[in-house]
Amino acid sequence: MSLMGAMNSAVTALKAQSTALSIISDNLSNSSTTGYKANTTSFKTLVTQSYSSTSYASGGVTASVRQNVAAQGVISGTANSTDLALDGDGFFVVSYGATGEETFFTRDGEFEIDSAGFMCLGNYYLQGWETDSAGNVIAGSTNSSSTLSAVNVNRFTGTAEATSAETIQANLPADAAVGDVVTATMEVFDALGVSHTVTMSYEKTAANEWELSLSDPVLSSDTATDSGDITGGPFTLTFADGALTSITDSAGVATELEFSITGFTTGASDITAITIDVGQGTSGTGSLTQFSSNNDDPDISIKSITGNGVEYGALSSVEVDKKGVIWAHFDNGQDIAIYKIAVADFTNANGLENQGYGVYQQTSASGDFTLHEAGEDGVATITPSALESSTVDTSDEFTRMIVAQQAYSAASQVISTASDMFDDLIAAVR
């Protein structure tokens, strides 16, 4: 009984140390795998029956894998803008396929952009919330995975912005005669990114007074073609010692410089209001003055006329910030937020089930997950252009390997010794 028990115990030891060696081998083979979490072997004793001081029944040992999914790996910088690393607790949320309903989790941020524009890790697609252009989540709630969608950087392949404000820095000639007219032009973009030109005509109506009229817009590419209808003006501008003191409409009521454009021939929607900042009564950056030009032919002197609209631009690159906001950069100079990456947190991350390829699945042991914005509620921030290294310590693994090898050899020796003792017993019987 005792010899059989010794052999059975030694066999379980061989199995347990084989398991340990398998885990060590797996760790070593993944020492360079992004986001890999080293596993350790947990040994537990087996007891077949109770024993006393005069009787002992060996049970042996069993081995199981022990995960350390929550361990933080070293973060190293890369040259790829879509490489992402989590610094702290949490996981990227991914789905199998762009429209997959099943949710998975990973610390591997080695994402690539596929031919359709999706950020993916092989067949697993990164999930996030759609945002407005400033990076605010559009979905009413960030607590439900139903508000997530696969991140597609081609959400906007191109963009344009209609003009809503103009800023003028110029000087009207105080030495112009009453009745003289000077002109200047400003560029206005419609919602389709088409450029239009609006002419501003300043007629001197008194010593310190000018009337501003705005012409209907024309295409900047074809100034002979009207492209819309202006509403607003004329405006009366009054100066004192060179400074603009008041702006009134045609009825003599104080007003701001503002106009609208309707009926664009390009098919763009109407622009309901374009304000002109000339610095009067505001803290704006515009400035319209009236000082002498000291020229024989007095004319308006323009320092700058700028607007906030932009022409059409194509997507040129994407970038992710530490809050997980994905910014699309366009070649017209616009930067627009398109997604915010979700970070999932678990009560017991070590209870997740490893699916391979650095991907984990929720289990009853891990508990339910909660979704957070990066850096909020104590979850990880996102480090862009970086990857989290494997947590494998090769020197530690080699030490474990030596221990496992010695234990395996010792268990083998027990079997060999027990076999010899059985031979001796059988020989004595004969």
Number of strands: 32
Strand content: 35-45%
Would you tell me the overall average pLDDT?
90
Give the N-to-C terminal Cα separation: 20 Å
- The outline comes out as rod-shaped
Gyration radius, rounded: 37 Å
Sheet with the most strands, sense and barrel status: 13 strands, antiparallel
* Content-based structural category: mainly beta
Number of helices: 2
Helix content: 10-25%
The domain count comes to: 3
Would you identify the regions where 5 or more consecutive residues have pLDDT less than 50? none
GO cellular component, one term: bacterial-type flagellum hook
Pfam families: Flg_bb_rod (PF00460), Flg_bbr_C (PF06429), FlgE_D2 (PF07559), LlgE_F_G_D1 (PF22692)
Protein name: Flagellar hook protein FlgE
GO biological process, one term: bacterial-type flagellum-dependent swarming motility
